[in-house]
Amino acid sequence: MLGMSMHDHYLQALGITRWVSRDSSKQDPANPWFDLENRVATCRACGLCEGRTQTVFGVGDRQAKLMIIGEAPGYHEDQQGEPFVGRAGQLLNKMLASINLSREEVFIANILKCRPPNNRDPLPDEIEKCTNFLDEQIAMIQPALLVAVGRFAAHYLLQSTQSLARLRGRIHHYKRTLTPLIVTYHPAYLLRNPSDKKNAYQDLLFIQKTLEETHEAQT
């Protein structure tokens, strides 16, 4: 049979059906994650759809206590369909590891699901037409803490125009669900400005402390 390996042929001859793990959210149309992923993948609400390789939905634990939100996919994200996979992604992984978290334990998403041309800043109409997807993700995950990395994520989630310097170092709340929210630097910014890594580490310790306090309050 086409598409079947030699190993599968042997298993079939022996009457053995090979077990294959499936993500139920991608198989069951009744699952809200299936519906949302499909709507993101087929979205043509703005002009970014014309230049994308693929949409970047988001990855991680869909019951995560911590949700990290960035700006928009870059070149590598557009190619691989996953957020934070280039040098900035490698740095983000190290940042999480510094507070004893792995990429698989959090959920990572972006304000936009498509890459802006030449990695330019998102336009207001693109943000307006795309962020309903992010809002749905937050509502379904119900994280204990949101972390906005970079000013675009912070400005959208807080409906603020204050500088990152003024937004860092305190707990805010996401406008729709009142979920606690902390603002820090985007890893791409830190690659260009390594002198701010010390400040970013202080943010990470603040994130860790807030997660621990939230957990204690819930137990």
SSE layout:
Blueprint: H1 6-13, H2 24-27, H3 32-41, E1 59-60, E2 66-70, H4 75-80, H5 87-97, E3 107-110, H6 124-141, E4 145-149, H7 151-158, H8 164-167, E5 172-173, E6 180-184, H9 187-192, H10 197-218
Parallel strand pairs: 2-3, 2-4, 4-6
Antiparallel strand pairs: 1-3, 5-6
Protein model, in words:
The protein is α/β, with parallel strands linked by helices. The chain has a single domain, classed as Uracil-DNA glycosylase-like domain (Uracil-DNA Glycosylase, subunit E, 3-Layer(aba) Sandwich). Helix content is 44%, strand content 11%. It contains ten helices and six strands. It has helices at 6-13, 24-27, 32-41, 75-80, 87-97, 124-141, 151-158, 164-167, 187-192, 197-218; strands spanning 59-60, 66-70, 107-110, 145-149, 172-173, 180-184. A six-stranded mixed β-sheet has the order 1-3-2-4-6-5, sandwiched between helices. Residues 1-11 and 16-25 have low confidence and may be disordered.
Task: State the main characteristics.
Uracil-DNA Glycosylase, subunit E; 6-stranded mixed beta sheet; disordered N terminus; alpha/beta
Count of β-strands: 6
Uncertain runs: 1-11, 16-25
Please identify the top-level CATH class.
Answer: Alpha Beta
Give the count of structural domains: 1
Known CATH architecture? 3-Layer(aba) Sandwich
Radius of gyration: 19 Å
